[in-house]
Amino acid sequence: MMTLRSRPFRAWMGLALAAGLVLAAASCGSSGGNPGGGTTLELASHTPAANASGVLLADAITLTFNNAVTAAAVTPSTVKVLDGSTALNYEKELSADGKTLTLTLTSAPASLPADLTVQIEGLAGSGGGSLTTSFSFTTAADWVELGGAVQEDTSNDADNPSVALDAAGNLVVAFDYGVSAGYRIAVRRWNGSAWESIGAPFNSGSSDNAYKPRLALDSTGKPVVAWVEYNATDHNNVFVRHWDGSQWIPYGSSDTPLDLTDSDSTTSPAVALNSNDDPAVAFAEQSLVSGTTAWHVYHGGYSSGFGWVFNSNPDNHTAANDALIPAAAMNASNQMILAWVEDSASGKGIYVKNVGADSFLGTGPLKHADDNSIPFMDMELNADGNPVVVWREQSNGSGLYAKYYDGSTWKNFGSSDLATANGFHFAMALDSSGYPVIAYGTSSGANINLLVTRWDGAAWVALPGNVNLDPTRELYAFDCAVDGNDNPIVVWSEDDGSGGYVLHAKRFNGLAK
């Protein structure tokens, strides 16, 4: 019979401690110990970190284990992402060595921000052992601001943003920017963590104010900007410059107004690039044609061999009628698709023309009803190269309307051309399915709200939350883009409370595509 005296005290304590450790390992679910003595499964690291905040729904949840697990072991029962008691759906991807599990959410929490819990319950390791543990984090709100103000100095006004996304998904914004010498064009890029300037603010080199830029990015992500300058002699003139990697330079040897006649007033430039990154430009110019002065839409382009070449004949459907607000895009055949608003005896309507083929798309102008005003219009091409047009039409009330061209006729999104019965100004971009995403301003009592709606393939869906910071303050111009996850980004100018114009940018906190 063994007694305490039959073994030294130190050796007995070692046995007791070892036994205690074994018992603890067998009873502790969070460490995943195997009571049979097999391999222990542990959660070595994870993102987001425990108690992290401001997490985007599109960001992957990554779980790294000390030992491998099998894809079959990862089920909705063993790995859960919980919004309260509701399990969210996800897609899973397991690394080749079985040690890194990536979860991408495919369903969203009921509201944002949300406190989410990743709960692992009895997940079996391929070499034995199981794991039960959890950690929590907090998502961002519905809309997430990209840094602070877009402009470098908020004491200088910024307005009229034009936006595009480069191949890396970074947002580029061109805008008019008030400096001591007057208004200039500024261009800045969001690098993922901060705003950085692309060169210094610029104009054509004169002392004139520059404003209302339109932005395009070439195949390498370098920006091309068309804008308007005003002077007392020539009125408004249109110019174009591009970033060569170190400075803003004109096409050709010098800045030249692109107007057909410099003394005519010119406005609303639109710019698009062909497959060689050569720019094509359209604008509205108040000119004399066949004895009648009216606003005419003209288009032209630049090539290194010929310089700037413009069609001297206006694109108007009827030359005697005013045509304004051109929008331009380039199809895969390097043909410019041009849209504009034109007057007629029955009110305003929208014409869309393939200027490369010199043919109008569809019969008659786009409009919801006769005798209405159309103060705003935008057009983009879908992946098939067919145009999608959104416009505001108003009479006693106002509404935003949308149609798409299917190659032969214009069609509605759904049973009607009405996208929303509200909206006094808007910006439009297309998602990867060619469906429009529309940012628009609307008023509610004394408040002005910047909202977003989108076509989801079956209906117009309003995204939650106001985009603007303070609905009680004045809302100025805005533009929008859609990122690689089909989540919209909106850039807008808002009163800072003291009469200043400050640019902000927000991304919708949506799911990954």
From TrEMBL:
<feature type="domain" description="SbsA Ig-like">
    <location>
        <begin position="39"/>
        <end position="139"/>
    </location>
</feature>
<feature type="signal peptide">
    <location>
        <begin position="1"/>
        <end position="24"/>
    </location>
</feature>
<dbReference type="InterPro" id="IPR032812">
    <property type="entry name" value="SbsA_Ig"/>
</dbReference>
<keyword id="KW-0732">Signal</keyword>
<protein>
    <recommendedName>
        <fullName>SbsA Ig-like domain-containing protein</fullName>
    </recommendedName>
</protein>
<dbReference type="InterPro" id="IPR014755">
    <property type="entry name" value="Cu-Rt/internalin_Ig-like"/>
</dbReference>
<dbReference type="Pfam" id="PF13205">
    <property type="entry name" value="Big_5"/>
</dbReference>
